[in-house]
Amino acid sequence: MLEIQKVSFVMDDLRLYLDTHPDDLDALAMLKRVHPRYLLQQSNFSPKEMQLRT
């Protein structure tokens, strides 16, 4: 669960940063690296699965 929170925080922070710095190539590259991890975490912990784990 902690990993989901970390990846979600990075994604949110990058999105906010890129709203004001859309030409920052380093931030865009980081987003491209983190986004697949974000999608993987989201698919691993869907609400249906979370109900089964509690």
UniProtKB/TrEMBL annotation:
InterPro entries, sorted: CotJB_dom
Ranges of residues in domain Protein CotJB: 1-38
Protein name in UniProt: Protein CotJB domain-containing protein
Organism this protein belongs to: Sellimonas intestinalis
